[in-house]
Amino acid sequence: MGQHRGHERTSVRPVNRDRYVDFLRAWAIGAVVFGHWLITGLVRGDGGEIRAPELLAEMPWTQWLTLLFQVMPLFFFAGGHAAGGSWERHRDAGGRAAGWVGLRALRLLLPTGVYCGVVLVAVGVSAAVGVDPYTLALVGWALAMQFWFLPVYLVLSALTPVLHAAHRRWGVFVPVALGAAALVTGALGVGLLNHVLVWGVAYQLGFCRRDGLLGGRPLGAAAMAAGGGLAFALLVGPGPYPVSLILVTGQDPSNTNPPSAAMLAWVVAQVGVCLLLAPPLRRVLARERLWRRVRVVSGVSMTLYLWHMVPVLVVAAVLYLPGLAPEPGFGSPAWWAWRVPWLLVLGGVLAGLVVGLRPLERGVGAVYARVGPRARPGWSWALWLGLVACVAALSRFAVRGFAPDGRLPVAPTVGVGLGIALVVLSGWRTDVRRERSAKSALDEVA
To answer: Residue 2: what pLDDT?
Structure first.
């Protein structure tokens, strides 16, 4: 949320935006939103209830579409690029790891906390008034389906000072080592670590790209794209992995839970393609009109990521429950034709939602403005304990949704609230400088 121009409190050095990195972030969020909406289909049952058949399982050929919409490597690649520069500026200004990690974490945790609060209140009220548990569980899952990204990104953010120190010493050998470790842990059946190792490869490549270790070498980028693409084809063709890059119920092994060797190959290939496309796209992004549009999308990327499934529920309640929406056979040609107005309607609802959320974003900015770039003396324990609580709670939401079995999940609800409070308190300041507005606070850690 907010455009990340970034500056440390102790430094007035301006930070030059990398337009291409912002474009990657905007492109990725657009692909995620569009992809989720495209594969989400609603069907009214005989009793008037709403069901959401799993398109990828019902029509296996659609799993090939995930090659277009699995762009999470771009998020981690762009995130590593931005985090590397931000951490360097903070470190050079005399800052310590705890203060930077706290500010970086709150960029995700504060808007996530608002989203969780709104959804959990709605779940609690719905459960209290007797909403069908199956329906509530389905809705709770849909609203948390994107949450897997948050705990992984929080862990990588917390590890950034260590990962960047390794990068400064060994450069491109670090992502190579992470990739090799991911292959070993996957073969040994300890795949849970691959959530950090595989996505950490993309994150670490962001460091390398920022420091020029990947740029200016088209042959190297082409080798990454071709090598990663060939490895992916072998792993999903004659190899054991499915083509789907999104979790499909009952599919084993999966490419995403945990990230597989095929996903690792996809990360390498996608980063290679990004490097190859950088020069022509940079020339296009030099046009100010286009750049302003990219900034708008990039600036609200967190809002779009968190809230993009809410329009689906709005449309379900307004059009499907009363029987006002067309209901062609699921997966039929008419159903696919209905995807066009479906996407347009959802886009309009989301645009209105983004505008309506601006007061909440200003409130988030005001809280963020009261957190300093240095941890309060004696409060570092609160930061790390709060991060552990948040990672655990968000992971639980990602796996079971906001309403498992149609009930309010008490433990993760308490965990995310307490965790965010501890992270905020670890850097809370009472002597905020007047000139540091909420907007500039949001821009402080890119």
So the answer is: 38
